[in-house]
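PROTOCOL LOG
Step 1. Enter all chains and additional molecules of the complex.
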Amino acid sequence: MKAAASLLFALLALMAFSLATQLDLAATGWSRADRSGNFLGLMFGDGRKLLGNQFFTMADVYFHSGYYPTIFDQKSEGQKEIIAASHGKKEDEEDEKNEDFFGKPKDWVDAFGRNFKITQHTHLEQGREREILPWLRLAAELDPNKIETYTVGAFFLREHLHRTDQAEAFLREGLRQNPGSCELLFELGRLYRASKLDFDHARNVWYLGVNRYLALKPEEQKENRLIFEEMAVNLAYLEDQTGRYEEAINWFRAAQQVAVNPTALQEQIDAIQKKIPAKQP
Amino acid sequence: MTAILQTQKLRVEYRSRELKPPQKVALQGLDLEVRAGEVFGFLGPNGAGKTTTMNVLLGFVPPTAGSASLFGIDVRQPIARQRIGYLPELTYYYKFLTAEEILRFYATIFGIARREADKRIAELLKLVELEHAAKRPIKSYSKGMQQRVGLAQALINNPDLLILDEPTSGLDPLGRMKVREIIQRLKNEGKTVFFSSHELGEVETVCDRVAIVHQGELKAVGTVADISRGHSNLEQAFLKIVGVQTTPQP
Amino acid sequence: MNKIIAVAGVVIKELYRRKDFYVLFVLTALLTCAAGAMNFFHDDKIVRYVKDICLLLIWVSSLVVAIVTTARQIPAERESRTIFPLLAKPVSRGQVVAGKFLGCWLATGIALIVFYLFFAIIAGSREHIWPVGIYLQAAWMQWMLLGIVIAMVLLGSIYLAAPSSTSTISFVAVGGILLLGGHLKNIALAQPEPMQGILTFLYFSIPHLEWFYLSDFVVYNFAAVPWAKIILATLYAAVWIGIFLLLTWAGFRRKNLTT
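Step 2. Run joint prediction.
Step 3. Record the structure below.
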């Protein structure tokens, strides 16, 4: 009886092994694990994008050291602040620090409860910005198509933590997931220009970005107007900086076509034109 | 002799909801008196009200009317249970504790000082022959061993009154003998024992007085000899009192 | 008091002889260590997310220990009928309730000490700072919250049929209060009457458990809360514990245990 049971066990184990070797190949066709290529994808499927968004918000919460509005508070658009910061608008950052989304205490419960929650509006600084990185990394894993994750992560890595190579690698990872993304190309160009002082690379990347923009359908171009303007203006500054004034003026003119305030750009054009030596008759 | 245990016109009604009429009257005007130093047997068929009476005496069920007292103190006062020991029909103890821990826990409840508790625990473990298993969790005990823990805990406070609910049910002959010995020993020490049982033969051998209850009413009370008078034995008297017709023996 | 302590002692023994706590502790430790071992941009100075995850696990684990342990206390005594030999001793039902509460509360307190020691070691080893004050405050406030929760669960266990239903309802209630308790007024203001009135009444009449959540102060390295506020919050917790225990005693006192 014991021998029969052992034999049956051995037979079943052999069958399981044989089936596994046969099904392994077939399973790659339907297995979610192979499509997503990572553990989080396997765990959450497409629902992971929701979590990715949440983790992106967590990065923002960390940036504000827990001072963050909930959906019930007066202001619930904290998410944009980190992105504003990513574009280097320090003055926006300072204005934002002065905002108080809690308002005055509504009653004694609210007033007393504030002793036990963070009511001080601060931003991470002096290298502590690194604390937001895990959430951005996870957000990128969970939702690889969320462009802001890469641009914000690269900005903090480059600007605050001075880790340009890792910022570049993160942006390139974003580009692999989102080929031809104008925003990512713009950010990559900024990295080359501002951090690596590699103007040729910056110009090439922005050119690529502009070409991608021009290849978009008209309605898609409308959505990406701002990023085109940013690229054109930055290209103009770059050309100005490298003494290619004609190109600089051309880029400012291109930016004027989509700009909200073309007059300001005209002033820039006028300033550059003064730098061009008068043509000999 | 003074009454150690007393009920007067004790009435218990069970109802499903507070304001609804009673579904069952478990006791109707029960008058009972157990005197100091006697072994008192409490008899009755199933559903007669024996367990309800015990539940009232132990404070598990509040009386609907009438009163019950132990040592002259209303049973609703916890202090009334300071000098009693209780052995339930089936053993129910915390399975994750050892016999020694159970006994120490109950000793603390009785407010027994640590040194005195140590002494008494050792004595009781010896009495119930569980010294070898004292530090093992109760979940590893056999049914008989668990019953012996029950007996030990009932005696932890050296009680003046022992309330035993079917103390020998489920025990093997050796276990029954042990329980009878202990009851006898307690009687010799002048303790009072109040116990319910189905074993009429057992009651006959150890009890000074018995009470027979049926349908929540006291039907007879007295010595075994008084109740058996006119019958061949206590069993015949019991059956007659509870209204069961028996065929005469040839 | 000795009787209450004796009943509490049995509860504590039960907790450390059951496997629940050990499983939760090992799970917390494993998940924290796994989170700590993750590499984000080759930066080994990143620490806050590890603290955050560890504290979240501590919160969940301690709530599970508190709610599950408490929810089964009195129903298990009734089901296994251990309540009868116990109540046959000179102990009142009020003392049993108090003993059960004290036992569960002390048991979760012991569990919290173990959890927070682990947390302090993990956080200290990476941050190299030891903000003992805020750690103490966070642990203390969490213990106070667990006191309210335990008293609330004990009350539920008197009236609800099974420990599982008591546990489930308690988890929903505690989670709901922690997440929404402080915002009920805001929600109320956006509602028409009579819902506005009902929600406002709820806002003022529920125990505000969210006050006792100091994890953010620990994660983001904020200074300790003034101790006077901690004392006031402790008094608030004591009042709620008293209310729940009183209601539990009132219910248990009249309970027919034989049905």
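Step 4. Note key features.
Chain B touches chain C through 34 residues (CB under 8 Å).
Chain B has a mean pLDDT of 81.
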